[in-house]
Amino acid sequence: MGLDPTAFEIDFDPLKRRMSGFAIHGDTAFDVPFISHIEGNLWTGGCTNGLILPYEFKHVVSLYPWERYTLPPNNDALRSETYWYIYDADVPSNIATIVREARRRVHDGPTLIHCQAGLNRSGLVAALLLVQNGMSPNRAINLLRRRRSHAVLCNPVFEEYVRSFQ
Predict the structure, then answer these.
(1) DSSP symbol at 143
(2) Is the pTM here over 0.70, yes or no?
């Protein structure tokens, strides 16, 4: 598997179920819950090894497979886990496939799209999903920033990609 060269330091406080740190893009500070509800069946978030996945999720789309949620005992609700290796750098060439697969899962039930901190990689996929569902790029970005963090899409390459998405 190797290491993610774009990973950055995050402080985890499992008692509060929050994470805080500084994103590598613009040295942007953040303090967020591990998981945030965006709308409908769409949730975004971050991850750390050993964190227990809440029972309500039917699908997990991981854009950061270097760390994984632990499944709770007797979790019969989870239907799928999908893992994609994405770096917090350039938009991956397979982004259309990732968004298509994520969209299918969101339409099927509560879906967590997560990356390391739930800011850029998951923000990119969630924003593109929202735009494909008819939301303007600006509105999608604003919704994600309001529901997750002002630091969502602090990666300017990802933000510009969403803003120019047709």
Answers:
(1) H
(2) yes
Residue length of the chain = 166
The tokens describing 118, both together, are 């739930």
Rounded distance between C-alpha atoms, residue 49 and residue 120, angstroms: 19
Domains plus CATH for the chain? 34-163 (3.90.190.10)
Q: What is the pLDDT of residue 162?
A: 98
Q: What is the DSSP string of 105-128?
A: HHHHS-EEEE-SSSSSHHHHHHHH
Q: How far apart are CA 138 and CA 122, in angstroms?
A: 16
Question: Cβ distance 44 to 109 under 8 Å?
Answer: no
Residue 141 identity (one-letter amino acid): I
